[in-house]
Amino acid sequence: MGTDYKNVRLTEEAYEKLRSRKREGESFSDVVARLAGERSLLELRGILDDDEADAIEDALAESYEGYADDLAADWDE
């Protein structure tokens, strides 16, 4: 029993986006299967309560502040 195939029409823009996501050795079918299996960040909505989300946001903000300071110091050298 062989593999069944379907034809799909894409706009040039959609084709180029798909082609840009193609990894070495992947067929377009492989790319579509991989991308279709990806989970959306929207699926994570609601898993943190407000306090947990605020704590993560604060930690990220502090991390970015340190990064900006380091970047500015490197720029001044």
Looking at this protein, list some descriptive labels.
mainly alpha; 77 residues
Span from first to last CA? 66 Å
Overall radius of gyration: 21 Å
pLDDT averaged over residues: 87
Overall geometric form: elongated
Number of helices: 3
The secondary-structure class comes to: mainly alpha
Taken as a percent bin, the fraction of beta residues is under 5%
Number of strands: 0
Q: Helicity, in percent?
A: 55-70%
Low-confidence stretches: none
* Main sheet summary: none
Describe the structure.
It is a single chain. By secondary structure, the protein is an all-alpha fold. It has three helices and no strands. The chain is elongated and about 55 Å long. It starts with 11 loop residues before the first helix and ends with a helix. The mean pLDDT is 87.
Task: Provide a brief overview of the structure.
The protein is mainly α and 77 residues long.
Record the SSE blueprint.
Blueprint: H1 12-20, H2 28-36, H3 50-76
